Amino acid sequence: MRNCQAGSLYRPARSVLAGALPGFSPNRPPRWASLSDQLDDSPFEIRLMSGNSREIQRNFAPYWGEGEEDRRLFDQLDLDSIPQHVAIIMDGNGRWAQQRRLPRVAGHRAGIASVRETVETAARLKLRILTLYAFSVENWKRPRSEVATLMSLLKEYLNKEIANLMANDIRFGTLGRTQELDPSIQRELQWAREKTSGNRGLLFNVALNYGGRAELVDAFNALWQQRKNGRQDEPAIDEQSIAQCLYTAGQPDPDLLIRTSGELRISNFLLWQIAYSEIWVTKTLWPDFRRKDFFKAVLSYQSRERRYGGLTNQ
Ligand code: FPP
To answer: Which atom, in ligand 1's list, is nearest to the CA of 154?
Structure first.
């Protein structure tokens, strides 16, 4: 039985991005724009820019020259309004493979490059949390060989990327009933979680053997257990007490939910947490998802007015 978290909030990120990713500079705490920050490199343009925005600018500088479209989209971003938490339903691996007359697992393998680029983009944009939906409780219905490949790709990814995660201050986490996975996978996940536990930059969550309804069942059971063992005069259950028993306890809800491959479904993902998330769907299949697609999603998010059920200018 899971334990619920005792009321603490997610610790703000203090990312120290240095090392493996070219162009990362040691992080300073975000601060308001100072006079010197207001003068950008161009003598013809005076722009208000916070220290945080400047740092994001520097994080992406090594890329420019690689893709004109990336640069054009990046320049349109409001670097002071980057979403804190982005969650992604990675879909379309099978169709990507089918289009190329390849076995489905080739699509999953190709999807790893998208995972790598997405994690790197999220870290460079200084997001606090990135959550990727890698394997649902319903995915066990797939052929055994496909499930086995997905699990071995995850292991392979962790082994290859751990040094990069460490060098870039990225903390690895999991959401889901990971205790039901093969012991060898559990050991790998535990190793990655422990090794990166001291990192303070991006929190990279992988949802594995995850289901939104299963998460609520687990949370209610944990809450029920807690109440059974507790005092008789406990206050009534409220939204906060439920949130503290979710796998995401202490983490802010996703601001932006991305789904690739064009399907207009939630697929049992983060049912509680996405109550007020902005949703962006792209027809791009996951193995083709790149930095520019991430920028497009953030741009769309930044064009939305988030009212949380209230009115404009309230
Ligand atoms: C959906 O495509 C994708 C998945 C079920 C798995 C995604 C997993 C990876 C990209 C690899 C491992 C992840 C990490 C984080 C290292 P689909 O097979 O449902 O595609 P289809 O709808 O076109 O059939």
So the answer is: 16
Between helices 104-124 and 144-167, what is the axis angle to 10°? 20
Does residue 202 register a pLDDT over 50?
Answer: yes
Give SS3 for 188: helix
Domain match, 88 and 75 both: no
Which residues does ligand 1 sit against, CB inside 6 Å? 90-95, 108, 111-112, 115, 132, 134, 139, 150, 153-154, 157, 206
**Predicted confidence band of residue 16 (pLDDT cuts 50, 70, 90):** very low
Looking at 27, 52, 80, the residue that finishes a domain is: 80
Closest residue by CA, ligand 1 atom 14? 154
Q: Does residue 11 lie in a domain region?
A: no
172 - beta bridge partners? 204
CA angle 271, 275, 279 (to 5 degrees): 90
> Can you give the three-state secondary structure of 150-182, one letter per residue?
HHHHHHHHHHHHHHHHHHCCCEEEEECCHHHCC
Cβ-based neighbour number of residue 152 at 10 Å? 14
Range of the domain at 61: 16-80
Q: Which atom of ligand 1 is closest in space to residue 133's alpha carbon?
A: 7
Q: Is the pLDDT of residue 25 over 90?
A: no
Based on its alpha-carbon atoms, the radius of gyration of the chain, rounded to whole angstroms, reads: 20
Q: Are residues 229 and 284 in the same domain?
A: yes
